[in-house]
Amino acid sequence: MNEIPILMPHMGQSIAEGTVIKWHKSVGDDVKIDELLVEVESDKVAFEVVSPATGRLIACLKAEGDVTDVGTAIGTLESEDDVGLSQTTIASNHGSKEVPGQDDPSQAEIPGTSRDMGLVGELPGLTREWLSPSVARLALRHHISLAELEQLKGSGRSGRVTRRDLLEYLSTRTTPSTLGTSVRADVNIDTLKQHGRVVPMSAIRRSIADHVVQSIHTSAHVTMVHALDVTDLVALRESVKETFRAQHKANLTYTGIMIFITGRLLHDFPMINASTYGSYILQRDAVNIGCAVALPDESLVVPVVHRADTRSMPDIAIELDRLVRVARSRDLVREDIEDGTFTISNFGTFGSLFGTPIINQPQVAILGMGAITKQPVPDDDKGVVFRDVLYLSFSFDHRVIDGAAAGRFFKELQDGVNNLTADVLCGNAE
Question: Are both 304 and 420 inside the same structural domain?
Fold first, then answer.
């Protein structure tokens, strides 16, 4: 009999852990190959784990509600079939970057990546695959920057930093970790309860908190705000939105319009459509724009409109409608949230005029959209006129982008808005 581990799958870039939601099989149940075993989820996506072989479930190592690292065994399957799968292959099939059964999973080989930083011009693993999920999560919680990690001498295979290496570094690190989101060991919960209701952070909220704090700790955030005159755009959208909806069965939203304009603009600003990896800047070829979506449980997810630079306005609107729908029903798949190169957040939906959005790592910029409001604008002939104004907040990493480039980006955005026509919006012309 062969024992096959059932692993917590890899569910996307920067996701280090998942939660067991529901076991569809009990210990002792017979299962067939590709039959649904268990549902898991991260802060971004839900994922169905199917059986890799025909056999019998002999162990559920993690209970419903348990949170565990990606690549960790959550169950065991017993099979008479010679499935011909090594542990490495099983992990790969589930998207994992770890191999169970090793003394230190952070030493697992990652095919196609290199950690040899001594090579001139060698780019480090673009998705930080030279870090195991457990090491990456430990680094996030202690606010260790990528630059710090690159200075460590790893004892793992090919010089990789192991969890043991990182713990030894933390024991001697003099920089205080004062921004952590994890509960401090000396916090007395009973004392807190004397002053009010104590609500533990959910796994989703902890993941979001770690991500945004790590972003602030990593990037030199600068936010510029620009008042965009969208009077003509408002009138244009009002004139075609009903026809657009009837023809394409999708909503013509300002978010979709901004994705359309920005997608075509980013090729002219390669340092904005970029990512940072240590002392390297990767100017992305693809233009994949993420859109922040608020969920009913007050969490947040960022699905991605891929190839936004090549899609027509109707195509973008249809895809955006789909992504928002599946995000709110928690039916996103891994491909829906991966490979974003730029992000747009429309907090104007809730009436906010402008904000200071936090960069979605490892990207270098994010655009925030406020509410469109009537604003008095000076006019040489009429004194003051009221125009429709959209405040855009552009947060960027000052290590990569300067204020002059941000200013030019704003100007091109305004020109892009002014050049829109009904034919372009309806997909009849580019």
Answer: yes
Same domain, 325 and 204: no
C-alpha span between 363 and 289 (Å, rounded): 11
Rounded distance between C-alpha atoms, residue 9 and residue 183, angstroms = 26
Which residues, in sequence order, are CB contacts of 225 under 8 Å at separation 6+?
354, 391, 392, 393, 394
279 domain residue, yes or no: yes
Q: Highest-confidence range of 118-132, 143-157, 205-219, 333-347, by mean pLDDT? A: 333-347
Domain count of the fold of the chain: 3
Helix (H, G, I), strand (E, B) or coil at 344: strand
pLDDT in tens, 141-159: 666 766 677 778 777 766 7
SS3 259: helix
- Residue 408, classed as helix, strand or coil, is helix
Residue 18: in which H helix or E strand, if any? strand 17-23
Task: Answer yes or no: is 235 within a domain.
Answer: yes
Interatomic CA distance for residues 174 and 177, integer angstroms: 9
Determine how β-strand 365-379 pairs with β-strand 342-346. Answer: parallel
Q: Per-residue pLDDT tens for 68-86? A: 888 888 999 998 765 544 3
